[in-house]
Automatic annotation (TrEMBL):
<dbReference type="Pfam" id="PF17389">
    <property type="entry name" value="Bac_rhamnosid6H"/>
</dbReference>
<dbReference type="InterPro" id="IPR008928">
    <property type="entry name" value="6-hairpin_glycosidase_sf"/>
</dbReference>
<dbReference type="InterPro" id="IPR012341">
    <property type="entry name" value="6hp_glycosidase-like_sf"/>
</dbReference>
<feature type="domain" description="Flavin reductase like">
    <location>
        <begin position="645"/>
        <end position="801"/>
    </location>
</feature>
<dbReference type="GO" id="GO:0005975">
    <property type="term" value="P:carbohydrate metabolic process"/>
</dbReference>
<dbReference type="InterPro" id="IPR012349">
    <property type="entry name" value="Split_barrel_FMN-bd"/>
</dbReference>
<dbReference type="GO" id="GO:0003824">
    <property type="term" value="F:catalytic activity"/>
</dbReference>
<dbReference type="InterPro" id="IPR035396">
    <property type="entry name" value="Bac_rhamnosid6H"/>
</dbReference>
<protein>
    <recommendedName>
        <fullName>Flavin reductase like domain-containing protein</fullName>
    </recommendedName>
</protein>
<dbReference type="GO" id="GO:0010181">
    <property type="term" value="F:FMN binding"/>
</dbReference>
<dbReference type="InterPro" id="IPR002563">
    <property type="entry name" value="Flavin_Rdtase-like_dom"/>
</dbReference>
<dbReference type="Pfam" id="PF01613">
    <property type="entry name" value="Flavin_Reduct"/>
</dbReference>
């Protein structure tokens, strides 16, 4: 059923402010995990003993005897208030309810969420346990959980009987229902404002598992985890913020605002469900609790954990993302002074002589070895300054924008100078360690700390794969752990530098592993796991070896959702609410992709299909598509560099030379042209090869002082292509291409006999331009034309007839143009004809005009 046809209610009758209808109805809605109603029932009944399905719900539902139990499987992550209707026989007893996200932990006690850790040490241990409904005698009963005991995230509900008697006390489960507690202001839980659909069904499911996770993380503002942790059981009645809905880190836990998590969660929210109201509420609570020194808490209330430089900056980056997606100028103006204060606070920690951030707020995402000149916080500071400069510009403060831009550039130089390990080919964790962290190196690619098209970027991308396991990348800064949070940055980093196949492989390996795990939720993304495949993420780093504590619906792991839209589909906004945007698809092994999202300006939608060679892009009518990038500095985002495709068509420099040893050489160059006509000069540009060897044409021209140019024509196109193949220096390309030679008349070089137009050239000079590895230096070879050969067969009325020569020219990529003459037109610039002789290229006429001392208009 299409989401547009569903009518529901909001959570506990709060004010409904969410969308009513899906923005993009279609068959892809079958992948939405969100239920079609706020009140739902389980899908199957499972045996606690075997873990196997007994029947579809309602199925067998009678519990007989003490500790008898049945497991009710909702088939996906859910959360909220459970109601059980049941009838009993016999004597008094209790109905127990236990909840778990993973199948591993189904039993008579819930998995862990309260922060005390069920498998902790000593008096820190506190099992979430179960909740109970007491029945005094045989009868009919109904039990509904109270708000403090709402379970934020679970898939499996175990119902069990506790009784002290051995006679026939039993419970018959008449009805199990759940009122969904997430996405509280939406009356239609399936009203997604974005979509993604490709020919790869696994990628589609991963995209929607991230989107659904984010839904489970948007919760009522009075349902946070209680702090301090309760001494037994769990309590989710803590106040998180003002308003009615807010985005938190996880469905089950911690149920608190964590700005670092939002660095991944918010971009994925924007392209999928589109709930930016919850984002605004989360950010506002961070501003409302800013400390007197300008720092932000690491987490929002009631936790209000302090002491994190990185999460301080994530609040600032989150502000940029929110404004980019909404253009909420009222929010920005309200909090701008606080933002400026926060910027001065964090930049005040940049110390000389290194000019790097000196981290003193040590708390972070769980990584080890924080503090000092750590590379990850410096990458985040660079991004904070860059996005801050944009915010300042949007506030109309160009001076402040320039100041922060300058600081960003200085910091970037210092990061590269002091933290890049040239021997290893990646960034070190700090100035004294040999550790090369996943987080900093991933962010260096994504944030553009290194040029997107550089060999350094490719080296970092390659080095990141050194830590890959069959189920995802090990975080070297948290050994034995796989963090889908940090891997979300790595994923986007590979895409930012054009390594599409690598990125798609990472999605399938990491997120595909959990989605297909038989013990997972089959619907959401997990907080983390170990390299051995256990769910015991962070067991030695803060989680007290309690594997049941790990969250299985954690928005910080939703990176593929935004990555698939922004990079694989290739649709991304670059200006506020899409005032500017880009379409730069990356194909990989996919054949078709479509998707879109909404802003206040309207719908943005794109699709591509390789098999049908179709591409479509739709945007609000008033928005113009603009693509902008800085070569070597920012990435174009396209599967191939567009530069050569912009300068088209280009004449082909089919250059023939002879070596000192008498070996003839022939090669085409797509950077070729004439420079002037009196006397005539031509040039061709030749890159060094991948091993930094200069081209034979260049060496021969310099050593012999001579070369020839041959017109590349339609009839000779296959020979031109054959001569482009790389051969050993002692190979004669004329022979390889099957071409007959003709000796030049003035210079000692061969010419292509079948070419209708040929130049004989004397070498003049070589201009050597610095290039980026692996291509190396570019040789621009210039020669003076000393003789010209034109076949009479290509002349018509004294003119070279393009319809007869039919030259070919290079375009972009592997494309060529065939010039037939049909599209040739003539156009003469208005004005004094004497001033236009240079455009005609007539040497004699130029001399005559020059003798008359004609003053030429300098604007021509």
């Amino acid at each position: 059923m299409s989401a547009s046809a569903i009518a529901q209610s909001c959570w506990q009758d709060v004010n409904c402010t969410g969308p009513v209808n899906t923005a993009f109805p279609g068959p892809w809605e079958d992948n939405i995990y969100s239920p079609a109603s706020r009140t739902i029932a389980p899908s199957t009944v499972i045996s606690l003993d075997t873990g196997e399905v007994i029947a579809d719900y309602p199925g067998p539902s009678t519990l007989v005897g003490n500790a008898s139990a049945l497991v009710f499987d909702f088939g996906k992550e859910v959360g909220g208030i459970t109601t059980i209707k049941y009838s009993t026989t016999g004597n008094a007893g209790q109905l127990g309810l236990a909840f778990t996200e993973a199948k591993n932990w189904i039993g008579l006690a819930s998995d862990s969420s309260n922060g005390k850790f069920a498998r902790g040490v000593g008096d820190q241990a506190c099992d979430d346990g179960a909740i109970y409904d007491y029945f005094p005698a045989a009868g009919n009963y109904s039990y509904t959980m109270d708000i403090p005991h709402m379970r934020g995230g679970f898939r499996y509900l175990t119902l069990f009987l506790l009784t002290n008697v051995t006679d026939g006390t039993s419970i018959t489960i008449d009805d199990v229902s759940l009122e969904i507690g997430f996405q509280p202001t939406w009356s239609n839980l399936r009203a997604y404002q974005g979509y993604f659909h490709s020919n790869d069904e696994e990628l589609n499911k991963i995209w929607y598992s991230g989107a659904y996770t984010l839904q489970t993380n948007n919760v009522p503002t009075d349902t946070g985890r209680w702090i301090p942790p309760v001494s037994s059981g769990w309590a989710n009645n803590g106040t998180l913020s003002n308003g009615t809905t807010v985005i938190v880190d996880g469905a089950k836990r911690d149920r608190a605002v964590w700005p670092g998590d939002m660095g991944i969660a918010v971009p994925s929210t924007f392209v999928s469900i589109g709930d930016l109201e919850s984002v605004m509420t989360a950010l506002q609570t961070m501003y409302d609790h800013q400390n007197s020194d300008g720092s932000f808490p690491e987490a929002g209330p009631p936790l209000l954990q302090q002491g994190s430089d990185t999460y301080h900056m994530w609040t600032m980056i989150g502000t940029y993302n929110y404004i980019l997606y909404t253009n909420d100028t009222a929010f920005l103006e309200k909090n701008w002074a606080r933002y400026e204060y926060a910027m001065e606070y964090i930049h005040g920690k940049v110390l000389q002589p290194l000019g790097l951030l000196n981290v003193t707020g040590l708390r972070d995402w769980a990584r080890q070895a924080t503090g000092g000149n750590s590379s990850e916080p410096n990458m985040i500071l660079y991004r904070t300054l860059v996005t801050g400069a944009d915010l300042a510009s949007w506030m109309g403060d160009d001076n402040l924008s320039a100041k922060w831009t300058s600081r960003a550039e200085t910091l970037k130089c210092n990061i590269n100078a002091h933290l890049y390990d040239t021997e290893y080919g990646a960034f070190a964790d700090n100035t004294t360690t040999s550790l090369h962290p996943q987080d900093a190196n991933s962010m260096s690619l994504l944030f553009g700390v290194v040029p997107y098209s550089s060999s350094i970027a490719q080296s970092i991308s390659e080095r990141l794969t050194d830590n890959w396991t069959p189920i995802g990348p090990e975080a070297t800064e948290l050994p034995n752990n796989i963090s889908p949070f940090i891997s979300s940055f790595e994923l986007q980093g590979h895409l930012a530098v054009g390594n599409t196949a690598r990125a798609l492989g990472l999605i399938r390996t990491c997120w595909g592993w959990y989605l297909n795990n038989p013990n997972g939720t089959k619907s959401t993304v997990i907080e983390g796991y170990l390299t051995n495949g256990s769910f015991a993420y962070r067991n030695y780093r803060g989680y007290m070896y309690d594997a049941a504590y790990v969250s299985h619906a954690h928005g910080w792991s939703s990176g593929p959702t935004s990555a698939l839209t922004n990079y694989i589909l290739g649709l991304e906004i670059t200006g506020r609410v899409g005032s500017t945007w880009r379409f730069a698809p990356q194909f990989g092994d996919l054949t078709s992709v479509q998707g879109g999202f909404m802003t206040s300006l309207g719908a943005f939608q794109a699709s591509w299909n390789i098999t049908g060679e179709e591409t479509q892009v739709k945007s609000p009518r008033q928005i113009a598509f603009k693509m902008f990038y800085e070569p070597g500095k920012t990435h174009h985002g396209l599967p191939h560099d567009p530069f050569k495709a912009c300068v088209v068509p280009r004449p082909i420099g089919w250059i023939s030379t002879r070596s000192r040893e008498g070996v003839d050489n022939l090669a085409p160059y797509s950077q070729f042209n004439n420079l002037t006509f009196d006397p005539p000069y031509v040039m061709f540009a030749a890159n060094e090869d991948l091993a930094s060897n200069r081209k034979d044409s260049t060496i021969n021209a310099e050593q012999s002082g001579e070369f020839c140019w041959n017109l590349a024509t339609w009839d000779l196109r296959e020979s031109v292509n054959a001569s482009a193949e790389w051969f050993d220096r002692h190979v004669d390309e004329f022979e390889r291409a099957g071409l007959e030679k003709e000796q030049a008349k003035i210079v000692n070089a061969p010419m292509v006999k079948a070419s209708p137009v040929r130049f004989e050239c004397k070498y003049y000079t070589t201009l050597r331009l610095p290039g980026n590895p692996p291509m190396g230096t570019v040789d621009v070879v210039i020669g003076r034309v000393v003789a010209i050969h034109v076949d009479d067969k290509v002349l018509t009325n004294g003119f070279i007839d393009i319809a007869k020569t039919q030259p070919i020219a290079r375009c972009g990529y592997h494309q060529y143009a065939h010039i037939t003459g049909d599209d040739i037109f003539e156009m003469i610039i208005p004005g004094d004809p004497k001033q236009l002789v240079g455009l005609e290229g007539n040497m004699q006429r130029a001399k005559e005009v020059g003798a008359d001392k004609v003053k030429v208009n300098p604007t021509q």
